[in-house]
Amino acid sequence: xxxxxxxxxxxxxxxxxxxxxxxxxxxxxDPDWVQVTTGAAEALWLILFDVCVPGANVIVPQPCYPAFDxxxxxxxxxxxxxxxxxxxxxxxDLNELxxxxxxxTRAILLNTPHNPTGLVLEPEEVRAVAExxxxxxxxxxxxxxxxxxxxxxxxxxxxxxxxxxxxxxDVSKAFSLAGLRIGWIVERDExxxxxxxxxxxxxxxxxxxxxxxxAALAVRQHRAIWQRNTEQAARNLSALTAWFQxxxxxxxxxxxxxxx
Length: 260
Prior knowledge:
This protein is an alpha/beta fold. It is built from eight helices and seven strands. The chain has helices at about 15-25, 40-50, 65-75, 95-100, 125-135, 190-205, 210-220, 220-245; strands at about 35, 55-60, 80-85, 105-110, 140-145, 165-170, 185. α1 runs parallel beside α7 (about 210-220) and α2 crosses α3. The two termini are about 30 Å apart.
């Protein structure tokens, strides 16, 4: 690290990190499809800045991570809520999603494992949303910052395998390295990648050189990091489960299947 140059990093991200992220996903992802960002928050800003034209609407799950509705609202778009209810275990209803879509719908945001419920969507459910979005000409954004943290021991494939998915990741959540402030977008569309790059060049120029080198190391060691974090999260979940059992006559819950 001491020998590393402290110059500006390329606005798209250092090649070393982009290659690590591409290898991390596999499935034929090219490093040129990776746009590095300052955490997942900047990734969402870059994507939604291009989406939220006047009159547009964006569909987000409810409950949701606050930035999912905060950013589109800040950019002047209408936010429509795809509601996940406790009564059905927070399982999504695709028919409800279809009812929310109209000619002004520009994007559907989804995150799995879901924040804050811990819902984990199965690959066929994610694919169904992606196919619906593709059929309507709507951008499908898959936020996967908790990808890798699953309690049933069964790994899930990333939505990066889907041809129309715009995937957001970072090292803040599943990697527990929030202080590095490194995230990314996996985007196949060259025109949109150029838009992200151009906007980022004027907003923050680049990430920190040392942060990107450390993030590349972490991404390449993701299995060991995820194992440690999943084991810790499972211990926390066990303690929480015992507490909910103690108060079962007063408080009901749906146990999370993934995430923290």
